[in-house]
Write a structure and sequence with these properties.
binds glutathione, Glutathione S-transferase Yfyf (Class Pi), Chain A, domain 2, globular, Glutaredoxin, alpha+beta
Amino acid sequence: MLTLYHSTYSCSTRVMALLHAMDALDWVEVRPVSIHRSDGTGGRDAANPHPDGKVPYLIHDGVEVWETGAIMVYLTDMFPESGMGFPQGHPRRGEYLSWMVWYGSVLEPVLIQKAAGVDHPYLRGAIRGVEEATARLAGALKRGPWIMGDRYTAVDLLLASPYLWFKDATPDVPVLRDWVARAAAQPCYEAARRYDGGLLAA
Ligand SMILES: N[C@@H](CCC(=O)N[C@@H](CS)C(=O)NCC(=O)O)C(=O)O
């Protein structure tokens, strides 16, 4: 059994978008929880077993999976026929895993540091900065239209997500702006937002 702890319009909304894209919602029990939000609203939910009180958090037959990238790889492996991932044995599997891990270890941290106005040689040494991350994305999109070529995958869903939340963070680079606009127009993204609207209204 798959259980996803989810909070509306948050990091877990992109996991919901992936489930929509894979037509896999029926296989998952979605448990809405509250979270502490950066604007001071909300609060930790005792019903959420995530050790840090965060979302997304996936439990599969008692096994815990956390971090959006790991959850997405786990789910795309479970639903390979969806075409949203690159399963074990696929020639581009390594590239897929690299982008999914790069999100949490490089892209998310450099964007947060930039927003916080933090810079330090140790950080630059470890993960570089927004300029380098932008160049990596733009380089991949030269082949396009998606990060891994001609099909929209979980890589695009995850890597475009910060720019969809914080539109001003989108670099003024045409190839990136166009990619973010294409990602925003994906039906799964709209479906996940509608789902969240329904949860809030209920
Ligand atoms: N790197 C984590 C980030 C998870 C995260 O920060 N989630 C936020 C929602 S966007 C959260 O649960 N915040 C609640 C809190 O900080 O207590 C991931 O990608 O899963």
